[in-house]
Amino acid sequence: MAAEIMRARGKRNWFRVLFSLVLVGTIVGIVPEQSFAADTDVSWTDDGVGIWHFDSDHHVWVDSPGALEEDPNAYKFEYLCLDDGRNNFDVGCLNAAVECTDGKNGRPVRWYSSLKAFRPPVWSQIRPDRCVYTEDPSDVLGRIAAQIQSKFEQLPVKAGTAGVQPSPHTLRGAETNFYAEASEQSFSVNMLGQSVGIVAKPVQYRWDYGDGASLGPTTTMGGPLTQDRWGETTRTSHAYAATGDFSVVLTTYFQGTYSVNGGPALPIPNQGQFSSAPHTVSVWRSVTRNYADDCIANPRGQGCPGAGPGNR
């Protein structure tokens, strides 16, 4: 059969098919023993992919909702053109399937989705069909799922920037308005020979104001005020109790999704945290003086614009 496949597709080194049961492409949960110390993980099951939490009291993994709104769908995939009776692939079917020529050992797959609320799942096809490139297709997507969190945290995500009003100087005891500016970002990376698209979306923010006070994480990013409203209290403002220069750091939390070879967007279990460069805020004190001169009658009186340096 291997020779027939090479003749039909002009490819070399087709992977060995070692399935004792009909392969439907569902990957069992990857929960190595050392993973039990982690809080969450991605697990592939008969019902697709989901976010799981390790219950240390009972030493079991349980399906649990994330801190943020999750995709309502579960996903799975199947390898196309599998000859159930011979545990091999049908050459004629492969000729008519999607071309998988971007790498070695390409195999066509079809993704399915079902609402998680459906028990049992009601699977619907997701078109067009996609490809997987590996000598061991039963493992590659699970291995990517196990590595995607680390890859996500290593991406050159542009951290949010902190807006400050007033800036660069503010007054002691006055409300200084802080707000975040951050945007959704997309990346394309190669993992285990597969093209993986990752989308990072800003979802939470934390301000460290430099004087020991902080705010967040919070979903509120704040926003700029018109100049006539500077000094008002906002949900992200802060009043400094002392004068001096303070380094403000904004940390933006990004939620990620990833897709393999153009497949459906799957959740990355944990958020990635990316911090901005410190922003220096100088806090000054205000001084109030009373003057007796009438500047209209005596423009050069103390405190008046026309006064000399010695009278101001």
Describe the fold and architecture.
- This protein folds into two domains: 2-152, no CATH class; 155-284, Sandwich (Immunoglobulin-like).
- It has helices at 2-9, 91-96, 137-154; strands spanning 40-45, 48-55, 60-63, 73-79, 82-83, 88-89, 106-115, 124-133, 161-165, 169-171, 175-181, 185-191, 194-208, 214-218, 238-239, 244-260, 266-267, 272-275, 279-284.
- Helices cover 10% and strands 39% of the residues.
- The strands form five sheets. Strands 10, 12, 13, 14, 16, 17, 18 and 19 form an eight-stranded mixed beta sheet that branches.
- It contains three helices and 19 strands.
- Residues 1-53 and 60-68 have low confidence and may be disordered.
- The chain is rod-shaped.
Topology overview:
Layout (H helix, E strand, L loop, with lengths): L1 H8 L30 E6 L2 E8 L4 E4 L9 E7 L2 E2 L4 E2 L1 H6 L9 E10 L8 E10 L3 H18 L6 E5 L3 E3 L3 E7 L3 E7 L2 E15 L5 E5 L19 E2 L4 E17 L5 E2 L4 E4 L3 E6 L28
Parallel strand pairs: 10-19
Antiparallel strand pairs: 1-2, 2-3, 4-7, 5-6, 7-8, 9-11, 11-15, 12-13, 13-14, 13-16, 16-17, 16-18, 16-19
